Amino acid sequence: MRRIVFQRSRILLSDEGVLHSPREVSEEVRDPHGGLLRVGPEEDAPRIVIWPDDVGAPDGARFLGLRSALSLLPADQAARVGRARQLLAWREQHRFCGRCGSGTELDQDGGVLRCPHCGLQQFPRVSPAVIVLVHDGDRLLLGRAPRFPPGMYSTLAGFVEPGESAEETIHREIREESGVEVMDLRYFGSQSWPFPHSLMLGFHARYRSGEVRCHDDELEDVRWFAREALPELPPPISIARQLIEAYLGH
Ligand SMILES: [Zn+2]
Q1: Alpha helices, H only, 100-213
Q2: Near ion ligand 1, which residues have CB within 5 Å?
Q3: Ligand 1: distance of its center to the CA of 94 in Å?
Q4: What is the pTM (predicted TM-score) of this model?
Q5: How many independent structural domains does the chain possess?
Q6: Are residues 183 and 79 in the same domain?
Q7: Which of 17, 43, 63, 105 could be bridged to 10 by S-S, CB 3.0 to 4.6 A?
Q8: What is the DSSP pairing of strand 127-135 with strand 198-209?
Q9: 189 in the same domain as 136
């Protein structure tokens, strides 16, 4: 896996469902903004290659969107691709210094964009978010956003705001999205979620009080589900699904 090949935001996979690194591509990264993008601090870490828009995928390979690619790839390659996608977006979106407007330059190890004029450093952005399975000891509280596939419900989630702890975010987000109060917060685990650059902090929480009502702009429905009558759930790679499976299996 020497190279991770992007065409716009799509990733090149072989027909076997692993990363495809064609021989005919030059070793030099084709970064339209200048500089090399290496996916990791190691000298032999894979490089990002930008494939021309007007050239089709090589034989035996195809370009896939990020979600499809992540669901097919082995875990180690999926993690690399998630990181690569975030680095690429960061490079594209921080071409100029936010303080003085000069063009930025990629540091040698690829981990920071520096302003050659005023010295401002810009690091890749990671946005923490909480994702919470609320339960009442029996039923699961799940919500549905309009962008979800038909019939699918998921755990409630929201971004951490400046100045908030993860716990404060949980109380605020659950209240905003469902109208209920929660208690007994239990940390479950975290997951990098490159849509576009989140770190999902997963928790279980127990219902404390309040009537469920959907009055949040982001959700079109939120309701209790009995464990034996669950709706369509998010894919197994998501921490949302893992939170639900862990609860059902406890
Ligand atoms: Zn500057």
Answers
A1: 166-178
A2: 97, 99-100, 102, 115, 117-118, 120
A3: 11
A4: 0.85
A5: 2
A6: no
A7: 63
A8: parallel
A9: yes
